[in-house]
Specification:
heterodimer, A: alpha+beta, 5-stranded antiparallel β-sheet, 4-stranded antiparallel β-sheet, 16% helix, B: mainly beta, 48% strand, globular
Chain lengths: 702, 248
């Protein structure tokens, strides 16, 4: 993160001045008014927003209404129910009875909000249900005017075409890179073998950037919240989403909603962190729903990652951003976006559910329940239809130690990797349950590797295809096997296509259009790359990007980007390769943090039209080949021109120097007491003919 | 023929090359680093490192024809650069001295008055320590190599920046071919980091660049350590490389 760079400078400065940073109360630091230390804040006007925490000083007070009216004697009893200190129950001076409401003050606004959430709707008895509100909210409600005034009619201003980048004449793709404090968006101009800048900005984001799933927006993350940027030819800020201390974001697949997450330290250090999740409507910026609670509620199924939860907490499914679901304790909570409430107003109860996964295309959830009761209740994998919650398919699995689910990108297949204990329970072996989702009754097939004791290092479905690849094995150079769910010989059965033995690979990267795959050896293998053609089952090229940490195909499947990020100290930067492994160009950038291709929305072409284009590819490609030829000639001409001018400039310099040297000759001789030893400095180039006997043959005349 | 050497023992010495005899010792208060004879060999320039409270300096000494007449006095002492001065050489006709070092600035000094005549521009010049400097045979231009992973070619009279050669490694040594338009850069990691990293991480290569086009032509691999010194064989056809390596 860019923070690291700045932190290093701060550390160095602190060390130099002998200051212990841990003793410094950062919150007490105040910049002199008007001073911003040269760091431009993108969101200065946010400070003037009134939907930020209002500095009224009353942000930590709640009002509890609908209390029973009680005489003074009963005060203590009532107070005991509500809270100890910071409570003020106003009294009617005439009757000496409470007025039926009280004010409670907390240490922080966050605690007040939490209290409000917890106590609003609390039933003291049938007649008294607490109505709890923030003190500041009253102000807001009081301000509502009595007369309804129709909203102002704003003239329609058409927005920019946010999809303009897709109409690039040269059919190029964009990518964003972050290095140091800069964030830059560039075109991948493969013809000219270099990137072409689109937009660059320093301090554009305060931590990372992320594209929306269809590529329309670039999201940036700041202390006060998130923002999205986009436009026709440049990047303007389109919308802001207030969420103080946001750490992670996630878009819904159709880009309609943005989910933001933050985690806050609790006032009692023994409690879990407090989590705040907001779901915004991307275009209007409106909060559709928020979720607040303790980190325990959001970290079911294992904590992990930077923020302590497995992100994203809410997984989207069902197409068209219809549903989002969260894993809970013994349940899966599925919400729909019509009303942002739970389907049927309740969660799907599944005892001991460990993990779930949406189909990428259909409203189906696959879930896994582990083995229970020491083998009494077997593990199982289920497919559940949403919203009906009907179980479509189920399979019991025995002796399971662990399980992982992999959906194929078109929702056609689900592979479940199952680790099973051997009879002795001392080790595990792995197999796959393969579900054919689109076929009647969803048949399941079991697949075991040739050597079933092999550890599975990686698994990946071919996007939009019927094949998958597996890296398996225990040796330092594992094997890679390719299987197909559907071959000419075996239509309804999975069959192995080939096994590549002893490869330096630990990661699989299929092209987004299938057919080709990069077998990558990252981390310990230091950046080995093999570009493999799965149709022909042959290697197209092997190459290396020393110390590569990331590999990403462009959205069209024409190019591959490999990058070395700042995890490593040296060699930071990225390479662009063609799909068949030819290195096109290389860019070095110190302190390199991110490389992300700009995603593309799915094609509007019907499958028939796509087939027609594939058939007539020669006709369509003629035009582009001609253009490529032109550019290539142009490039050579430019190259030649550049060389010519560089040589000319140099010649001029040389002759100038020669002239001066000649002029100074006399003086030099004098410095050497009359010795004309210039010649000793000069080297002579002599052409020498060397004869070398290569071979001797004898020809004998008959 | 006379040889001049500078040493961390805080002296510079004159030697008779044929007999190997020591002719004279110049004493300093800090390690002596770079040495160069002027045209005509009547003057020499010696640089000294910063040491304790002393700043680095450039000393000009008169070299007597007869070693018996040699004096240790400095004709001129130039001060100003921050940090170590890694190289100081004579400009054409001994009218100037060119210095470069840790503060990444190339300076041209007037030998007569001792005044600073020119300084390289901070924007276009090197960004990190200049480790090495090599003059062209006729002294009209010179090459500097720097830890900022680049080498630059300058006009010795005007200090105009003419060429920049970019590489992926800090540059420790530079040299120019006397015959062809080649520039060789040698480098790698700092010596202190050598033993703690993979030999490939340091990528110790000597790289050949086209002097005019600023493009890399090729490299010579096969070193275990960073390259610290380079020189072309006077016939211009081969070069020697000195490098640092540890055998455990």
């Amino acid at each position: 993160m860019g923070d690291v760079l700045i932190m290093n400078e701060i550390d160095a400065t602190a060390n130099r001045l002998g200051i212990d940073l841990l003793q410094v109360d950062l919150d007490s630091i105040q910049l002199p008014p008007g001073e911003d230390l040269g760091i431009i804040s993108d969101d200065e006007d946010v400070y003037e927003d009134d939907d930020q925490e209002v500095e009224s000083g009353f942000g930590n007070i709640i009002v509890v209404d609908n209390l029973p009216v009680v005489p003074k004697e009963k005060f203590e009893k009532l107070e005991g129910v509500i809270k100890e200190d910071g409570l003020w129950m106003p009294v009617d001076p005439e009757t000496q009875k409470s007025l039926g409401y009280c004010f409670i003050e907390y240490n922080t606004p966050q605690e007040a909000e939490l209290a409000k959430e917890k106590t609003n709707g609390y039933k003291l008895d049938r007649a008294h249900i607490f109505a709890v509100n923030m003190f500041d909210d009253f102000d807001k409600f009081m301000k509502v005017p009595d007369e309804w005034a129709p909203p102002e009619h704003k003239p329609y201003t058409p927005g920019e075409n946010l999809q303009k980048w897709l109409t690039d004449e040269k059919a190029r793709d964009q990518f964003v890179i972050r290095s140091g404090t800069d964030t830059e968006v560039l075109w991948n101009d493969a013809r000219h073998l270099k990137p072409e800048p689109v937009y660059k900005r320093s301090y554009w984001t305060e931590s990372f950037v992320q594209w929306s799933p269809l590529g329309t927006y670039l999201a940036t993350v700041h202390r006060q919240g998130a923002a999205v940027w986009g436009g026709a030819n440049t990047f303007n800020r389109l919308m802001r989403y207030a969420h103080p201390q946001v750490k992670l974001i996630d878009f819904s697949p159709g880009e309609k909603y943005l989910v933001t997450y933050s985690s806050h330290e609790p006032s009692n250090p023994r409690d879990a962190n407090r989590v705040v999740i907001n779901i915004f409507d991307v275009r209007t910026g409106k909060v559709m729903r928020d979720f607040k609670g303790s980190a325990d509620e959001f970290a079911v199924g294992g904590t992990g990652g930077v923020a302590g939860v497995s992100w994203p907490v809410f997984r989207w499914g069902g197409g068209k951003d219809k549903y989002f679901a969260k894993l809970g304790k013994n349940m899966i909570s599925v919400y729909e976006t019509e009303s942002f409430t739970l389907i049927d107003k309740k969660s799907l109860k599944v005892e001991n559910v460990m993990d779930f996964s949406w189909s990428p295309t259909d409203p189906i959830i696959s879930l896994f329940v582990p083995e229970l009761g020491g083998g009494n209740q077997p593990a199982r994998v289920s497919l559940v239809q949403i919203p009906s919650k009907e179980e479509l398919r189920q399979k019991n699995l025995f002796s399971v130690s662990d399980c992982k689910m992999y959906w194929q990108s078109s929702g056609d297949y689900l592979a479940v990797k199952v680790d099973r204990y051997t009879k002795t329970k001392k080790s595990t072996y792995t197999g796959f349950e393969l579900f054919r989702i689109k076929e009647r009754d969803i048949p399941i097939e079991v697949l075991e590797l040739d050597n079933k004791n092999d550890k599975i290092i990686a698994f990946a479905w071919e996007p939009k295809g019927h094949r998958f690849a597996v890296i398996h094995g225990d040796s330092p150079r594992p094997d890679i096997s390719f299987y197909s769910m559907r071959t000419a010989q075996h239509a309804g059965r999975v069959s192995k296509l080939t096994t590549l033995k002893g490869k330096q690979a630990n990661a699989l990267f299929w092209s987004p259009s299938g057919r080709f795959i990069v077998l990558a050896g990252l981390k310990g293998f230091n950046g080995q790359l093999e570009f493999y053609n799965v149709d022909e089952l042959e290697t197209m090229a092997t190459a290396e990007h020393f110390m590569a940490t990331d590999v990403e195909w462009d959205p069209t499947g024409r190019y591959v980007a490999t990058a070395v990020t700042s995890v490593h100290e040296m060699e930071n930067g990225f390479n662009i390769w063609s799909f068949n492994g030819k290195l096109l160009y290389r860019t070095l950038k110190d302190h390199f943090f991110q490389f992300l291709w700009r995603p593309r929305p799915p094609s509007f072409l019907t499958p028939e039209k796509e087939e027609e284009i594939a058939k007539n590819l020669k006709k369509y490609s003629k035009k582009y080949e001609a253009e490529d030829q032109d550019v290539s000639m142009q490039l050579s001409e430019q190259e030649r021109e550049k060389r010519r001018s560089l040589k000319n400039e140099w010649e001029k310099k040389i002759s100038e120097w020669k002239r001066l040297h000649e002029e100074e000759k006399m003086e030099r001789q004098m410095l050497r007491d009359g010795e004309a030893s210039d010649e000793e400095e000069e080297y002579e180039a002599k052409e020498v003919e060397v004869e070398e006997v290569l071979d001797v043959t004898e020809e004998v005349e008959e | 023929m006379t040889l001049i050497t500078g040493s961390a023992d805080q002296t510079a010495k004159l030697w008779n090359v044929e007999t190997g005899a020591q002719l004279f010792t110049f004493n300093f208060d800090s390690p002596a680093r770079s040495v160069d004879f002027a045209v005509g060999d009547k003057l020499a320039v010696i640089t000294t490192d910063p040491f304790m409270e002393l700043n680095s300096a450039i000393h000009v000494k008169r070299i007597a024809g007869d070693p018996a007449d040699q004096s240790g006095e400095s004709v001129l002492i130039l001060k100003g650069p921050q940090g170590r001065i890694n190289r100081a050489v004579w400009g054409p006709l001994n009218r100037t001295i060119i210095s470069a070092g840790e503060d990444a600035i190339v300076r041209i000094w007037d030998t007569e008055t001792g005044k600073l005549l020119k300084e390289s521009d901070k924007e276009t010049g090197h960004k990190k320590t200049i480790t090495s400097l090599a003059k062209a045979a006729d002294g009209s231009h010179f090459l500097t190599g720097s830890l900022d992973k680049s080498a630059k070619l300058w006009d010795a009279r005007t200090l105009e920046l003419i060429k920049t050669y970019v590489t992926e490694r800090p540059v420790n040594a530079v040299t120019m071919s006397p015959l062809l338009d080649h520039v060789v850069l040698g480098g790698g990691q700092d010596a202190s980091a050598v033993t703690t990293t993979d030999h490939r991480a340091g990528k110790f290569e000597a790289k050949f660049f086209d002097k005019i086009l600023q493009e890399e032509i090729g490299g010579v691999k096969g070193h275990f350590g960073p390259i610290n010194a380079l020189a072309f064989n006077p016939d211009g056809k081969s070069s020697i490389r000195s490098y640092l390596f540890f055998v455990i």
